[in-house]
Amino acid sequence: LVLVALAMSDQKKLLHTADFDPRFTNQMQTKNCWTSYIEYHQCVAKNGDGHPSCTKFKQNFTSLCPTQWVEQWDEQLLRANSRVLSKLNKYIY
Prior knowledge:
The chain has helices at 29-47, 55-64, 67-80, 83-92; strands at 3-8, 11-16.
């Protein structure tokens, strides 16, 4: 686990890389990024925004995914609402 303290204005934000996930080899980090993103949104849909069990998924996808991808996916989710996640579930598992 790599920890990096990053100074942002007057407060510090703790960043870390995602823990090893045996489902994904080093060559499959794009899928790991996508799966973590989807699992986070499934958790939020089930437990509500800010639920402690969803934190790990968010940390994983923010560590693994390029910011531009996440911004684009967030925009797509806003346009399509939750229909996108329910349709994508069948592609993950």
